[in-house]
């Protein structure tokens, strides 16, 4: 095949993956819970890794991939193994939500560490893939799952909470920050509220200059979760009323650089 056409196909593929967002389509197998089960899942190992490797720089929370200790690497592996050896369907929905969010974030950090040094998570996933999100990376109950499965086939369709986009982290500067606290059934409401507030009030979330409105591409990719473009503007106006005075359509941006210390 002519190399010119190979590059055209490659560029088209990259363009598609950088702009297309998966739909929320329920994986019915995981939509089960035991609300009578009051058992709590232990997320202390994940909290330990976060405590030792996160730092704040301006509005960004950064992970120290370069200097993470062998002990913390092992703690991360042990934590992921512990979660994947559980059947989340046996827990109540509040425990499940924390389980899936923490697993998504821990697995993402693990992916970066396995391939570090890299400049962006988008470098992973193969020649014709924009990132690793469609790759099966964990197995639970003999079911292979990808990061996209967790976010778009479990979290979004089951909980139907737009703030999920502030909770899961894609290891990029443009993403809502990786939470410094491990999610638990008890702290989820406060962490979601804080993540929402922090992102909307950061320039990577909402940036207003003169009469121009620049939004994170999250509000473009997942506009359906916010009620469409007008729904996005109405929602953000609750936090920033000045948006209502802007007549121009918003532009969108996203920074895929690694959230590296």
Automatic annotation (TrEMBL):
Keywords: Signal
One Pfam family in the UniProt entry: DUF547
Keyword rRNA processing: no
Residues in the signal sequence: 1-20
Sequence ranges assigned to domain DUF547 in this UniProt record: 89-200
Superkingdom, natural source: Bacteria
Entry annotated with the keyword Signal: yes
Listed name of the protein: DUF547 domain-containing protein
């Amino acid at each position: 095949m002519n190399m010119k056409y190979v590059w055209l196909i490659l560029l088209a593929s990259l363009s598609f993956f950088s702009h297309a967002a998966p739909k929320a389509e329920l994986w019915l197998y995981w939509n089960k819970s035991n609300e009578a089960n009051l058992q709590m899942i232990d997320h202390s190992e994940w909290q330990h890794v976060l405590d030792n490797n996160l730092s704040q720089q301006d509005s960004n929370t950064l992970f120290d991939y370069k200097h993470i200790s062998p002990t913390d690497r092992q703690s991360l592996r042990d934590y992921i193994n512990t979660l994947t050896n559980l059947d989340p369907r046996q827990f109540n929905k509040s425990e499940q939500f924390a389980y899936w969010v923490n697993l998504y974030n821990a697995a993402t950090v693990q992916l970066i560490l396995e391939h570090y040094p890299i400049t962006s998570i988008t470098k992973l996933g193969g020649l014709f893939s924009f990132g690793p999100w469609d790759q099966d990376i964990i197995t639970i109950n003999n079911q292979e799952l990808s990061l996209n499965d967790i976010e778009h086939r479990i979290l979004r369709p089951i909980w139907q909470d737009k703030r999920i986009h502030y909770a899961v982290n894609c290891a990029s500067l443009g993403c809502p920050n990786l939470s410094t606290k491990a999610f638990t059934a008890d702290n989820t409401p406060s962490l979601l509220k804080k993540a929402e507030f922090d992102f909307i009030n950061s320039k990577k979330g909402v940036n207003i200059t003169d009469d121009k409105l620049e939004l994170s591409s999250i509000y473009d990719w997942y506009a359906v979760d916010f009620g469409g473009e007008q729904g996005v503007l109405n929602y953000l106006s609750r936090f920033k009323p000045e948006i209502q005075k802007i007549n121009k359509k918003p532009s969108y941006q996203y920074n895929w650089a690694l959230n590296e210390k």
